[in-house]
Amino acid sequence: MKILTITCWSHKIKYHLFSWDGRTLSASGIIERVGLGSSFIRQNVPGREPFCLETDINDHQGAVALIIATLTDPQQGVIADALEISAVGHRVAHGGKEFRHSVQIDGYVLNAIRKLQHLAPLHSIPNIAGIEAAMILMPAIPHAAVFDTSFHLSMPESAYLYPLPYEWYEKYGVRRYGFHGPSHLYLSRRAAVLLDKPADACNLITIHLDRGISLCAIRNGLSVDTSMGMTPLEGAVMKTRCGDIDPGIHAYIMTVMNLSAKELEQILNNKSGVFGITGQRLERRQFLKAALDGDSRCKLALEIETYRLRKYIGAYLAIIGPLDAIVFTTGTGAPEGAVREMVLNGLECFGIRLDRDSNRAVRSEQEEVEITGEGSLIRVFVIPTNEELVIAEDVAAIHSGVYSDPQHYDYSFACADFVPSHSMG
User: Fold this and answer.
1) Catalytic entry in 56, 59, 148, 405
2) pTM for the full predicted model
3) Structural domains of the chain ordered from first start
4) Which has the minimum average pLDDT: 83-97, 135-149, 306-320, 328-342?
């Protein structure tokens, strides 16, 4: 069985093709600049040189068609025909409170996703475009939606409700939902294995570090709070998103700059965060290098980012209770070591100690490493996340009729004999 996973953004699509019988990754790739001109696809196949092709792609249907063409190309592909694909998994940013787990997509589900798009328009609109395109081009196979929000629907009311007029929640769905659910799920299950404890007995703080950044407070294996809110804009400082700010700023800036709500939203999502502070549109590896090399604005942005992360850890320690571990992802390998040191610096009063030598020795973006310092009461791990594997596993389980929900399904990566591998994502 071969499973294709697709994650769509406005001008970018990421994809992975898994050969599920052998639990291996056959190919992965990305299409950049969809609808912007100068588009290109870059595909990686284990054991081969990366393949890159420049070609204009006008929309998501054209992009999905190019993915299929590349996967089936006689020279660059890995399958002879698109009919070899058994199912497609789509990452969907927002499932509201309706979707507590991954589901097969039918007319009802797609319509429900459309009705929820106002909760995360920057993400849901391209998600929907990708689903519609893939279902047109591959109509004979099942498609499944894997929601970023589902993992967090275990949060209590006291955590997910905002202190706003209650009818806003009843009429418009205004509440905290949280995102990066597949990543926090994967991290929590892998941490449970490393702790040699059942997942439902683990208390954790998981930190997803990428273009988007979020933290999750996990008590007894369940999400009880998370930094992102109704939209992915709330929470930590991110690449281009502001994260937590005084809501009074909105009205003030809209007035003095004569901005519309849409214009302000674009600034908060696309021109703030690290970009807003530095004035440079840098990839994370470039940003960290510049900060560590002494660029004053980049250094300041890193200090703000790590300060905010440290504050969240302190807050989550207060609500979780006795903590087993703090888990960091790593998307850039060695440069993230400095981030972890800055985040955890000063938390010794909570019994959190970092082994600096072990931390600085982390080089690979793929290895799971414990970086707990001597005498630490709380363990610290670096665990590369694998959202695509979560998506593929949910799709395979739905296709086989054995899926239940994230809390009760026995994921392969939650088993002690699972070996994380670059070949799996």
Assistant:
1) 148
2) 0.95
3) 2-147+402-424 (3.30.420.40), 196-382 (3.30.420.40)
4) 328-342
